[in-house]
Amino acid sequence: MRVTEGMKYSQVLSNLANITSQHAKASQEAATGVRIGKPSDDPIAAAELARLSASSSQTKAHLSTINTVRGDAELTESTLDGAADIFTRLKEIALQASNGELSADDRKTMSVEVAGLKDSLLQLANARGTRGYLFSGSQVATAAFDPTGVFQGDDAAHVVQIGNSSPTAVSTSGAEAFVVAGGRNVFSDLQSLATALSANDLGAIRQSIDDVGASQTQLMNARARSGMVLSKLDASESVLSSLDTEQQKRAQIGAADPYESYTRVTSLAQSLERAISVSRQILELGGSNRF
Amino acid sequence: MGSLSQLLYTARDSLTAQSYGLSVTGQNITNVNTPGYVKRDPLLESHALGTSTTGTVTATGLRRATDIYIERRELTARGAAAATSEQDKQLASVEALFNDLGATGMGSALDGLFSSFSALAANPNDPTARQAVLGAAGALADRANAMAGSLADAKNELLQQAQETTAEINKRAQSVAQLNQRIVLAENQGEDAADLKDQRNNLLLGLSELVDIRAIPDDKGSIMVQAAGTTLVEGTEARAFSIDLHADGSLKLSSTSVGGSGTNNEVTQFLTGGKLAGIKEARDVDLFDVSSRFDKLVFDVANAVNAQHAAGYGQDGVTGRNLFDVGAIPTDAARNLRLSASVAGNTAAIAASGDLLTLPGGSDNAVALADIFNTPLSGGRTAAQSYGDIVGSIGSKKSALEQSVETQQAIKEQVQAMREAVSGVSLDEEMVALTRYQRAYQAAGRVLATVDELMQDLINRVGR
């Protein structure tokens, strides 16, 4: 084959261009630590990364939802705990008051304490979380109970998505905890005791012992349900956290292996040097002593 | 028998012929780096002087060292290489638009809208969460508009490029026709048309990068050029290509017949190579595919969100409001996507609650809105999956094109090397040729001196 000047030059040129572009790409990969900088670098991995980023942002959104609702769930649990404690005290008072040796004045004094406990209960029942009133159901902007203890909320649950399962209720129903939806209206039971005490009606007081006890059970059941909500949140959170870690690990398919890329840059740099020196020899060949 | 004076003429002819050889060699060396220059060989012939048995030499002309088959292959190879490299270049800008890895794509906007619905469910009565939904929906619309706008711009730009390329093709076709005329004229007058042929060859090489051509020489020195399956240049006549649009918006390439009789023949389907084919492929196949899939995705997402949003209630107790304005058909959905006027700037209009009675704390509709992003849309794929499919298909197309650019480039270089092997200038050869003609010239001079000496001797002796 005839070898002409044009062939020599274009051969040298295309060899150098080829190695230089490989070297540039490898250097960029080593310098940035990113193997897939654009979809064509690895189409399958790029599509996978696009989908992965969507599921990863869902995981993060669920985690952030859990964080948002956890505060209210914890507050609900401690509030119901406090309300149950009030009924423990009320039960004690009722038992004490049912003692026939007590005077009417003694019972009057007790009724004052019961009235105070009613205010505390009202405060607890109208507790506010980040979302609004905890026990008003969906009526978060309206106090759950008016000053006389009349329920103003509803029984609608607060549902959120905290995983890939169906939506989860993360609220504890105020209606079930405090009013007849749960079986007893706790404010009425408290009021009956107060009325019986101030009326010094021993029969009614003895009747109240059972009623107050039933209300206490109802509140403790509600507290248990709120505890279950919390443990559900915890369980979801731990699943989501490990999922998040796993997804972040999978997102590393777009990252370069530092040892591999460094080795490649070094070997390409050597190839480039060799190519330059060979090119110089080709171009110098005969150039000085031909004519 | 030849005489001494005949020998003088022989020596003179030899000097002329060798210096012609030297000048051709010089020309070759001079043009060693000239693109498209075809190496010349001087043609020397022995030549009898009258009826005598002694002969002399004459330079009968030049031979351009060409191989028509290799040249034809080069035209095809250059056309194919130019087409793929143009298509690859155009797809690179589309790829950059959909590069979520470089944070330019649509993925983060879709994720953002989902996250805002999810946060709204966590706290439906929170004005900040509602504002975040409006913000995320607006960002999604903006992103879709921007990407669709860039795709449309790219389409328009490619139309313009196709028109410019066509104009360039027409100009070059005219030049080829003119050169045909001059070459035929020169050869008729017995002149050397090698330079004109080099020029025409260069023009054809350039033309082959714009459109797929075939060059068919005739015996009069003229070349007929076929482009995109039709005759572009015939003898001294050049036809013209023109670009306009089909009803569906795709490019339409037509050729006008010679003499401008007004009949336009459509040749779009025969266009296979050169920059023009690359532009057409990038515009009417790649861009069309990407933008229609993107429009469909945006259309499906917007409609699914709208349907769910309209089913819920705003804080003001109003139901049936859409979150997005999107056209009735997928075409141009991404470009037309807007935040609906009934919700824009109105946080109370966001429908988090699925029931009038559960206002303002109901979150079921917000949960359902977020769930859209996990629900398969019309194609049986979720929004994120569909988007990933688009990104993946652009990526694999681009990476396949990069491969074929390399292959075509290698083929082109190989054919170019073949042409160089036939037509290129080798300085080694020229050096040898230079020495050969130099020595022959010196020897012819020596013959002249010898004849001169002999004649002088003769004159001196006879004249005494």
Structure, described:
The complex is a heterodimer of chains A (291) and B (464). By secondary structure, chain A is an all-alpha fold. The two termini of chain A are 23 Å apart. Chain A is 69% helix and 1% strand. In chain A, strands 1-2 form a two-stranded antiparallel ribbon. Chain A has a domain at 49-250: f41 fragment of flagellin, N-terminal domain (Up-down Bundle), CATH 1.20.1330.10. With 464 residues, chain B is an alpha+beta fold. Chain B folds into 2 domains: 4-65 and 425-463; 68-423, no CATH class. In chain B, the strands form 4 sheets. Chain B has a 4-stranded antiparallel β-sheet. In chain B, helix 6 (274-311) runs antiparallel to helix 8 (364-371) and helix 6 packs antiparallel against helix 9. The mean pLDDT of chain B is 91. Chains A and B meet through helix 1, helix 2 and strand 1 of A and helix 3, helix 8, helix 9 and helix 10 of B.
Main structural class of chain A: mainly alpha
Beta content of chain A comes to under 5%
Mean pLDDT of chain B: 91
* Biggest contact: A-B, 59 and 71 residues
Number of helices of chain B: 10
Output the strand order for the largest sheet of chain B: 3-4-5-6
CATH secondary-structure class of one domain in chain A: Mainly Alpha
User: In CATH terms, what is the fold-level topology of one domain in chain A?
Assistant: f41 fragment of flagellin, N-terminal domain
Number of DSSP strands of chain B?
Answer: 11
What would you say about this model in short?
The complex is a heterodimer of chains A (291) and B (464). Helix content of chain A is 69%, strand content 1%.
Topology:
The complex is a heterodimer of chains A (291) and B (464).
Chain A: H1 5-32, H2 43-97, H3 104-125, E1 159-160, E2 168-169, H4 174-178, H5 186-199, H6 202-250, H7 258-284
Antiparallel strand pairs in A: 1-2
Chain B: H1 4-30, E1 40-48, E2 55-64, H2 68-97, H3 107-122, H4 127-188, H5 194-208, E3 213-217, E4 223-227, E5 230-234, E6 237-238, E7 240-245, E8 251-256, E9 264-266, H6 274-311, E10 324-325, H7 333-336, E11 338-339, H8 364-371, H9 383-423, H10 427-463
Antiparallel strand pairs in B: 1-2, 3-4, 4-5, 5-6, 7-8, 8-9, 10-11
Helix pairs in contact in B: 1-10, 2-4, 2-6, 2-9, 3-4, 3-8, 4-5, 4-6, 6-8, 6-9
